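Possible regression after last week's pipeline update?

I re-ran a chain I had predicted before the update to compare outputs. Posting the input and the new output here so someone can diff against the archived version. Not blocking, just want to make sure nothing changed silently.
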Amino acid sequence: MNMETFQRAASLSPALAQRWLSPITAAADEFHINSPARLAAWIAQMGHESGGFRLLSESFNYAPEALRIFSRIPASMRAELGRHPGEKVVPLARQEQIANLAYGARYGNGDTASGDGWRYRGRGLKQITFKDNYRDAGRALSVDLVNDPEQLANDDRLAARSAGWYWKSRGCNEAADRSDFDACTRAINPAMDGKSGRDARYKTCCNALLG
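New output (post-update):
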């Protein structure tokens, strides 16, 4: 996959394509994402997860009504925690509260008071989330992500490698071989959030990579 093809597949600016081509190519080689069909599905999913290869750390800058996607945040707290009138961005302290309520006491995270929800929020191209997943990814990549989770947001190669690891470990290569993009989406996001956007990216990727 050359620069021009990657740029078209992922709908990237020249600068972003140049930034990401090498990390994406290396991770694809490492995790056997080694056919046009596999690349198309992977790039589409990672493009969606990362907001077009731009966001490597999860934001909790939500309007109150948008917080309903987190079942653990009571309706009575949405107005308090979400963006207030006149705010462009939810202050960091409230974003931390949202993350800790949403992700606390799940998949290896400590309770809401532990701060693990914020500590192990989504990072990397896949937005790896929860302590258990950071631990497993770190073991697979030979990196200590439990004690230094920020590496997934600060190192483009690790951001891509963690995405490749997650993809392969969930059987997405085989799903892509079957052209079962919905199975890939379920593996990445069981709730199928953003399905239409993912599907649109997949179509673009297929046009660029499969002709």
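Follow-up from reviewer: compared with the archived run. The chain has a mean pLDDT of 98. Marking as no regression found.
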